[in-house]
Amino acid sequence: MTTYIVNLIHAAWAFINDYLLIISLLGVGLFYFLVFRAAQVRYLKHGIGLLLRKDISYDDDKVNISPLQSFLTGLAARIGMGNIAGIAAAISAGGPGAIFWMWVAAFLGMGTSLVENTLAQVFKTKISNGEFKGGPAYYIRYGLKNKTFGIIFSLVLAFTYGFAFVSLQTNQISESLNYAFNMPHWVVGMILVFLTALIIFSNLKTISNVSAVLIPIMSGLYIIMTLVIVFWHFTAIPKVFYTIFSSAFNTDAALGGTIGAAINYGIKRGLFSNESGMGSSPNIAASANVKHPVSQGIVQMVGVFFDTFVICTLSAFMVLMSGVYGSPEAVGLEAASLAQASIAIFYGKVGVDILVIIIFLFAFTSVIGYFTYGQVGVYYFTENKCAAHAYRVGVLIFTFWGAYNTPVTVWNTADIFMAIMCFLNVVALTFLWKPMYIVFRDYQLQLRRGIKTPVFNVEKYPTLKALLPDPDIWNDSAHHQRQAMKVAQKQAQESRAD
Length: 498
Fold this sequence. Notes:
Layout: H1 2-35, H2 39-42, H3 44-50, H4 67-78, H5 81-94, H6 97-122, E1 125-126, E2 132-133, H7 136-143, H8 147-181, H9 185-202, H10 206-232, H11 237-248, H12 259-274, H13 281-285, H14 293-322, H15 336-381, H16 385-404, H17 407-431, H18 433-448, H19 462-465, H20 476-497
Antiparallel strand pairs: 1-2
Helix pairs in contact: 1-6, 1-12, 1-17, 3-14, 4-14, 5-12, 5-14, 5-15, 6-11, 6-12, 6-14, 7-8, 8-9, 8-15, 8-16, 8-17, 9-15, 9-16, 10-14, 10-15, 14-15, 15-16
């Protein structure tokens, strides 16, 4: 009986880890690809153009962020360890073919990102200080009218980001420092626990402000370093493409990963990088002040494209052009250490040291960001201070656990939580296809009529209006009334002053 239970647990674990994520992510991506007739292709150019326009948002809002700010914030959250260690991990575990399947998943994921970020806008609400709040927990609660489902998602969000993803980041910091300086994993773990505790318990903002300046610089430096490699060795590009495509359908494990492993790790590591379908970016997208919810969905869709097809591809080319993968020197190298060994071929020890700094900044700021994401899930469930402190202690435990354990163990644990969170989100996205179709069709029809800047008015859709927690957000006439009131109040104040 005991053996049967153990085997059953192993089978369930394997199903969640190997199939649930892939089936759910590709399934919803393909569904919306067909429903919206390849919107990620037809609206990509349009989305890039939206980034440079200010007329898609209300210019009188001094509280909420603009669409461009939302795009940059979401991109900053995406660019990080997934683009470096995640890609190297995908290649080391699934072979070069994993990159092809990462592209496939990202292509479909662009459509999924369009949907989840649009719905986050549709079902957002405004709190007392004028800020917009929204995300999966909101469109689950109000769109599906299921408060329990929303609570479950918020708890999974808290565990996924606060525990599993935090441990993944600290694991890569530990791996990179061990590779570069032979620093013991337990020592790195203790240092990271101290630094993390210093921030999450004292609420210091200095490090966050410094990181806000350094992260864009480090991101730009990494992109420049990889671009130089690709351009300097441009003659190797056809060979790299051939390796990726031929390995994508490989059935011989001796050649660097079977097709099953390529699909598995390509999709998982790609999702960790671009987060499309996971339900994290909608929490940021909901904060943007836009005239039509679909415009924000399209903007975030562009973020997935840039993350995967540009930055992740540059990382993959760096690893494959170096020749380290598949060589005797690559034995025992995984994720961050494989990326470091690859960049050392082109830049030597200096390149390794620079990459250590980049990895540390990316990973450590992600730890703080993931803690914040997880805390949102906790607060949605309960605002009890004891629960909040217990959650912080749990984050510190997983901070050390991730730094001390092997990459395989930590990645597998993160994959489990990531699969569950993604599955819950895409189930909600599938059932909410009607509200999504209404707003997307509205946006599409306005563009066809030659309206350059579509504006969404929910009064035209009573059925949808009945679902929204704050329908006045999408009432254009109500917005103009508020504008008129502000102007009248300002004029009254000026007249009194005179």
